[in-house]
């Protein structure tokens, strides 16, 4: 599947390459999925700087980091000298954006998405802003096909779907879980599972009893590195989680946060990896 | 010129602590207010200094204090409280200056040190107030009060010292020193009103004595007429005998001479 | 060293030393301001620009924007906020006769925090015309109203028969703080992930959102409040002797309290509104100055304005240079620098706190 995506990209690259002058690095990319899309469009060389949520592909780690996207420093942004800023929705503070716009830097906002269509729209906007609509169209097709395949593979009858609890944080023994309408909720459903919590929207702290009632078969978390065995011991010892079916099987899945929640070109991969982790033997 | 209080009533939480007290103090005299604990001595001083809400009228040098601004009052009279806690590490001389600035001698650079010299603490001018002993602190506060009303009489009007137990933390030598300062202020034409605990010192230094008991004025007059067996025994609720040995011709009190 | 000269110097010297300090601090403020215009993430340099101007060259657009729209409003805001926090701290300590008091005592912080959280979490529910009216300034406006409003409420609660009890105000402030905390907790519960992030960053404080609009909104309020506060020097000195004695030496205690509380609410409310929560300036600055030149509020208050402004401007320079092109929230810098200094003061001079 990855090979299929790559070949699509290469094809797109061949058709467009001759027409373009080789532009210099001139883009500041804000938001992990936007940066991924820039790279997937073969425009990674144009990235001059990134924000702290942009961690993929690994090469971008070497770029200057302008900080957290909602607390940007206007001079910091201007100091990297971008001609174009591509930003996920919600960059700020507003005063900083005002100054940046006043400095005649093109600023393109890319709306958030938790659906296939949303991802394709992101690709279209980024491709247009970078002046590579053909590449964007090719990437769009590849991503759409790939995602459709991944979701088709993952789909299964309701009765066989596992109940998944996405835990954002266990800070201070209190569990913050995902309700509906979030990227986590969307990914869980795309990967052929059921979100165990549907009583509320967004990420919220949830009581111990509510976790018990949700009765998740699997706990899904962001991978923060470190020793998963020890982390699991701690996780399944929590009163809220101890009584769930997930604790009985010690069933936990950890995936990279950006891969899971970014909703960019790698979402099909996220669907496959989550699906495999949930249903393949030995997972 | 005088300080006259008429029909002073003060209530604390429903209880009438002062039940219509009249007091008249003349400039040139030391007027002592005595009485047992809880008789209302300090409360009366609080009314005289406009610190406590009260009924009745207080006239200072002919003016009703109810109509006077804090700074107008500060120019006419200075008040020594029972105990003083100072919030920040001011130096002794700086504390005295705080008093001086409130009075009419605010621009004379020599006054604070002279005031300290009068209470015998000029050598401590640069020390931090918090480092002083309790007795030294009380004398510094007296110096502050003196610096506020430095001239006992100004433009023909007397200044007033209102002292709440001015010798409570002092040893006997400094008790005498402080009372002597009060007497000299009065002899120079100023007015002094002091709440006193020590009846002997009262007898030694007061020109007039007011005896309070249970929120009422029991007696008022010269020490000789007021400090008697009958009045004091009634005021303090225990048998007291006043004696006057021939050489000094001043009354003194011997609790141990009381008949059981 | 300081202790020796203290004992030998004639007492008048502490006042003249405080006045000398005044000029030294003014010079330090000028230097800090120059540094703040000179240094930043871009390589725009004030010195280079001045040289350009002298030679009659025009400034480029980038240089103009960095200097006039980024660094200059930021400098102005650092100056206003630093002076406001330091002077408010000194006034509160004088008013409550406690060297650990800060404006938080009169509920400014809790109220401003609640206002900010309300704006961040529920701002989206406002009718469109209200959002348009407030524009980008919804959070600062709400924070200011929250801070000012809670102080007025406390003042009303603590005032009976024309007298304000600072003890009642303190206790009511604790109750109000708990209530504001609980309401904030409810809002935090319904907040989404982004809003929570915004709340965290607001709480850490920053001058990154500086703009001429904010300077214009907060500047007059802070200037007015500080002007009033600085005039309280003599009255606060008197209050060190206690409320009754302050009245005996001619101070209108009730009027002073009203002026002090309103000035602090205005200055701190405006400062917190435009910069978020910035800690330790209000406690550390007055302490340092008392150590250097004594507790006389007539010199302490203006010197606190100068030192507070200088320190906050320098902290902001650090905040925006260390991890450029990103920057640290300035509240982190002031806490990292301020907390050790504060501990050091406590260890060296316990007497300052215990009286």
TrEMBL record, chain A:
Spell out the Pfam families in the cross-references.
Peripla_BP_2
PANTHER family per record: HEMIN-BINDING PERIPLASMIC PROTEIN HMUT (PTHR30535:SF4), VITAMIN B12-BINDING PROTEIN (PTHR30535)
Identify the stretch annotated as signal peptide in this record.
Answer: 1-19
Domain named Fe/B12 periplasmic-binding: residues: 26-282
Q: What is this protein called?
A: Hemin ABC transporter substrate-binding protein
Q: Its domain of life?
A: Bacteria
Q: Which organism is it from?
A: Roseivivax isoporae LMG 25204
Q: Which UniProt keywords apply?
A: Signal
Which InterPro entries does UniProt cross-reference here? ABC_Transporter_SBP, ABC_transptr_periplasmic_BD
Matching SUPFAM superfamilies: Helical backbone' metal receptor (SSF53807)
UniProtKB/TrEMBL annotation, chain B:
Q: Which InterPro entries match?
A: AAA+_ATPase (IPR003593), ABC_transporter-like_ATP-bd (IPR003439), ABC_transporter-like_CS (IPR017871), P-loop_NTPase (IPR027417)
What SMART domains does UniProt report for this protein, alphabetically? AAA (SM00382)
Q: Which GO terms describe its molecular function?
A: ATP binding; ATP hydrolysis activity
Q: Where is the ABC transporter domain?
A: 3-239
Alphabetical list of PROSITE patterns matching this protein: ABC_TRANSPORTER_1, ABC_TRANSPORTER_2
- The source's superkingdom equals Bacteria
- Protein name, per record: Iron ABC transporter
Task performed by this protein: Part of the ABC transporter complex HmuTUV involved in hemin import. Responsible for energy coupling to the transport system.
Which keywords does this chain's UniProt record carry?
A: ATP-binding, Nucleotide-binding, Translocase, Transport
Automatic annotation (TrEMBL), chain C:
Membrane-spanning ranges: 72-92, 104-126, 138-158, 170-191, 211-232, 258-284, 304-323, 330-347
Q: Which Gene Ontology terms describe the biological processes this protein takes part in?
A: siderophore-iron import into cell
**Transmembrane helix keyword on record:** yes
**InterPro entries hit by this protein:** ABC_BtuC-like (IPR037294), ABC_transptr_permease_BtuC (IPR000522)
UniProt keyword annotations, A-Z: Cell membrane, Membrane, Transmembrane, Transmembrane helix, Transport
Membrane protein topology class: Multi-pass membrane protein
**Where found?**
Cell membrane
Q: Which GO terms describe its cellular component?
A: plasma membrane
Keyword check for Transport, yes or no. yes
Spell out the Pfam families in the cross-references. Answer: FecCD
Q: What is its main location?
A: membrane
* GO molecular function list: transmembrane transporter activity
Q: Which family is this protein grouped under?
A: Belongs to the binding-protein-dependent transport system permease family. FecCD subfamily.
What name does UniProt use for this protein? Heme ABC transporter permease
């Amino acid at each position: 599947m990855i090979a299929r995506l790559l070949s699509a990209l290469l094809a797109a690259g061949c058709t467009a390459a001759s027409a373009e002058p080789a532009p210099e690095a001139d883009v500041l990319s804000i938001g992990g999925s936007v940066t991924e899309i820039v790279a997937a469009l073969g425009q990674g060389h144009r990235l001059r700087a990134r924000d702290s949520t942009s961690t993929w592909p690994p090469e971008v780690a070497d770029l200057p980091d302008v900080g957290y996207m909602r607390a940007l420093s206007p001079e910091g942004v201007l100091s990297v000298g971008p001609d174009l800023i591509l930003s996920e929705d919600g960059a700020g503070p507003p005063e900083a954006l005002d100054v940046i716009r006043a400095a005649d830097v093109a600023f393109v906002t890319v709306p958030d998405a938790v659906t296939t269509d949303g991802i394709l729209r992101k690709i279209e906007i980024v491709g247009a802003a970078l002046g590579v609509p053909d590449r964007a169209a090719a990437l769009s097709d590849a991503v759409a096909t790939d995602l459709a395949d991944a979701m088709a593979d993952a789909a299964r009858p309701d009765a066989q779907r596992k109940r998944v609890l996405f835990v954002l944080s266990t800070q201070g023994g209190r569990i913050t879980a995902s309700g509906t309408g979030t990227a986590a909720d969307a990914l869980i459903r795309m990967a052929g599972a059921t979100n165990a919590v549907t009583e509320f929207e967004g990420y919220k702290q949830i009581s111990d009893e509510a976790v018990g009632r949700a009765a998740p078969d699997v706990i899904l978390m962001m991978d923060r590195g470190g020793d998963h065995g020890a982390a699991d011991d701690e996780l399944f010892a929590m009163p809220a989680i101890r009584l769930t079916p997930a604790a009985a099987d010690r069933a936990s899945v950890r995936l990279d946060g950006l891969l899971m929640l970014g909703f960019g070109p790698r979402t099909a991969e996220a669907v496959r990896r989550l699906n495999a982790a949930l249903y393949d033997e030995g997972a | 010129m005088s300080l006259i209080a008429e029909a002073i009533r003060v209530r604390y939480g429903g209880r009438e602590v002062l039940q219509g007290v009249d007091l008249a103090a003349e400039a040139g005299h030391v007027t002592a207010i005595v009485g047992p604990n809880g008789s209302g001595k300090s409360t009366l001083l609080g009314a005289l200094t406009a610190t406590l809400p009260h009924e009745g009228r207080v006239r200072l040098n002919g003016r009703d204090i109810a109509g006077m601004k804090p700074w107008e009052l500060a120019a006419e009279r200075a008040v020594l409280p029972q105990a003083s806690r100072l919030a920040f590490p001011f130096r002794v001389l700086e504390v005295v200056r705080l008093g001086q600035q409130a009075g009419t001698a605010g621009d004379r650079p020599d006054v604070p040190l002279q005031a300290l010299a009068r209470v015998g603490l000029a050598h401590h001018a640069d020390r931090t107030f918090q480092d002083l002993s309790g007795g030294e602190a009380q004398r510094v506060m007296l110096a502050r009060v003196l610096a506020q009303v430095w001239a006992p009489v100004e433009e023909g009007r007397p200044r007033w010292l209102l002292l709440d137990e001015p010798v409570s933390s002092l040893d006997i030598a400094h008790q005498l020193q402080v009372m002597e300062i009060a007497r000299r202020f009065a002899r120079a034409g100023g007015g002094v009103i002091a709440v006193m605990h020590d009846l002997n010192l009262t007898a030694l230094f007061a020109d007039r004595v007011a005896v309070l008991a249970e929120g009422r004025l029991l007696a008022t007059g010269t020490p000789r007429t007021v400090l008697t067996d009958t009045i004091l025994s009634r005021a303090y609720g225990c048998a007291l005998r006043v004696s006057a040995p021939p050489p000094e011709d001043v009354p003194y009190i011997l609790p141990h001479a009381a008949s059981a | 060293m300081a202790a020796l000269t203290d004992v030998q110097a004639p007492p008048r010297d502490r006042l003249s030393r405080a006045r000398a300090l005044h000029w030294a601090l003014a010079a330090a403020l000028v230097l800090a301001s120059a540094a703040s215009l000179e240094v930043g993430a871009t390589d725009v340099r004030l010195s280079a620009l001045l040289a350009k101007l002298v030679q009659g060259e025009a400034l480029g657009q980038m240089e103009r924007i960095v200097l006039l729209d980024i660094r200059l409003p930021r400098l102005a805001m650092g100056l206003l906020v630093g002076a406001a926090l330091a002077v408010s701290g000194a006034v509160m300590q004088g008013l409550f006769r406690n060297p650990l008091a800060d404006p938080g005592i009169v509920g400014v912080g809790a109220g401003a925090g609640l206002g900010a959280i309300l704006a961040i979490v529920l701002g989206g529910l406002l009718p469109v015309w209200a959002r348009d009216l407030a524009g980008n300034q919804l959070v600062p406006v709400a924070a200011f109203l929250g801070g000012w409003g809670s102080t007025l409420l406390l003042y009303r609660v603590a005032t009976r028969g024309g007298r304000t009890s600072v003890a009642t105000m303190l206790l009511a402030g604790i109750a109000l703080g708990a209530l504001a905390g609980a309401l904030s907790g409810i809002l935090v519960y319904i907040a989404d992930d982004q809003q929570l992030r915004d709340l965290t960053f607001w709480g850490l404080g920053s001058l990154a959102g500086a703009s001429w609009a904010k300077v214009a909104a907060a500047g007059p309020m802070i200037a007015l409040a500080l002007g009033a506060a600085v005039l309280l020097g003599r009255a606060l000195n008197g209050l060190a002797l206690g409320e009754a004695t302050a009245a005996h030496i001619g101070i209108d205690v009730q009027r002073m309290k009203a002026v002090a509380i309103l000035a602090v609410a205005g200055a701190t409310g405006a400062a917190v509104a435009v910069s978020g929560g910035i800690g330790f300036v209000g406690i550390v600055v007055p302490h340092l100055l008392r150590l250097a030149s004594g507790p006389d509020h007539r010199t302490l208050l203006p010197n606190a304005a100068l030192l507070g402004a200088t320190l906050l401007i320098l902290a902001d320079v650090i905040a925006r240079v260390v991890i450029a092109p990103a920057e640290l929230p300035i509240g982190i810098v002031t806490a990292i620098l301020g907390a050790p200094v504060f501990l050091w003061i406590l260890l060296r001079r316990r007497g300052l706190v215990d009286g």
